[in-house]
Structure formats: structure tokens, C-alpha cells
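quick one: adenosine-5'-diphosphate bound model?
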Amino acid sequence: MFITFEGIDGSGKSTQAKLLYAYLREAGYDVLLTREPGGTPIGDQIRAVLLDNMANTTMHPSTELLLFCASRAQLVNEVIQPHLARGGVVLCDRYADSTLAYQGYGHGLNLKTLRQLLTFATGGLKPDVTVYLDLDPVEGLARRRKARLFNSEEWNRLDDMELAFHRRVYAGYEALIAEAPRRWLRLPAAGDIAHIQDTLRGTLAKKFKARKR
Ligand code: ADP
Ligand code: TYD
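yep, here:
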């Protein structure tokens, strides 16, 4: 089973993915947790280029897109496919939907082109389930500001830009869910961490059982 985690920045994907990983491992599943961009030695080098916004300020959106796809191609071939082929469970913190939401809906790149590129990069591998942590973009920004130790009273221009961008990303996720509602498992992300995890486990258990039948 291939399970991905999606949502805007700060929605709690890493937190929930780590908790689910620990739980499934304890329950005896052959489970692997990975993340994007990165997850392989080559992918981690690509991640460093992508996230180095101090040095790489002139990166073109098309370059950014291709680097995300390059990191993903390596991850799918080196890690995800082999583990699924062994019958294991793979949890991935972000996957192809992030490219559609961020590069497509966020930055306005052509969705049809993105889909073709994604099919090429992933060999057509799609998640069985995508956990969506549904968080209001304003709350997401507040969490990121808190994590960065910014003064939460002070609202600056960069925050406004960031908020407008994340609103487009959020709307993008809504559109992606509407296209394929059966694949997505939407969870309200504003509640207590343990409560969200309980709901996630309960809903996934039902899906696991349904697949065994
Ligand atoms: P993501 O991987 O989606 O960016 P993280 O799991 O890294 O999100 O969480 C971002 C920040 O929000 C972290 O500081 C984390 O401790 C905090 N956080 C995660 N889940 C919750 C929650 N349900 N309520 C409040 N804060 C949370
Ligand atoms: P990361 O530090 O992993 O953020 P998060 O904890 O929110 O997942 O940084 C990943 C950033 O890259 C995040 O802002 C989303 C973005 N991203 C894309 O724009 N496109 C993609 O295809 C992927 C995988 C991530």
C-alpha cells in the first residue's frame, strides 16, 4: 500500500506521518517513511538546491518544477517501487499532488504539461490513499511564524505574499480532491495532534480491511 500525505506548509504532515509510521511498525507492518523533495542521497542534494532560497534566488519556475520531478523520479525508482514490490507499506510526506498544487495552482504552470511530466517522472505510480491535512492558510501561516520564532504580532509584506500563494495552493488541493474524491482522506488539521492521529488510524484500518477482502 502506498500512502501519501498532502496539505499546505505547516499543516502537520510530517507530525502525522511519523506517528503513523511508528504505529504501523509496532503493529508488525514492513513500513517505510520517506519525504519529498529528498528521500535518497541524490534527492537530498536536489532538495538542498531547491530549498536554498538564499543562494538560488534566480531559480526559474520551470527549473524548480524539473528539479522536483528529478528528485521524485529517483525516489520512486530507488526506494518506493522496490519496497512496494516486496509487499511493504510506503508512507510519503508529499508526492505528485504537491507539484500540481504548488507549481500548477500556486505558480500558474500549465496543468496538462505538469501531468505529462509527472507520469514520466513516476512511471505512472499513483498513491492508493492520500491523507489530506486540511488547514486554513491563515492558521498555516501562524504556525510557520511561530516555528520561525517571528513576532506573531507583526504582519509584513512577505507574509501577505505567502498567504496569497498558500490560498491558491489550498484552492488547488480542493480542486484535486474534487477530481478523485475516493483516493483522498481529508482530515481537519486544526485539532489536537493525538486526536487527528486516532481518526487517521481508524479510517485507514477500514481501508486496509476493505482491501484484504
Ligand atoms: P508539515 O510537515 O505539514 O509542514 P509539521 O508536522 O512539520 O507540518 O508541523 C508544523 C508545525 O506545526 C510544527 O511546529 C508542529 O509541531 C506544529 N503542529 C503539527 N500539528 C499540529 C496540531 N494539530 N496543532 C498545533 N500545532 C501542530
Ligand atoms: P518542506 O520543508 O519539506 O516543507 P513542508 O514541511 O511544508 O512539507 O519544503 C517543501 C516545500 O516544497 C514546500 O513549501 C512545498 C514545496 N514543494 C513544491 O512546491 N512542489 C513539490 O512537488 C514538492 C514535493 C514540494
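The helical segments are 13-26, 41-51, 61-85, 96-106, 111-122, 137-147, 157-179, 193-212.
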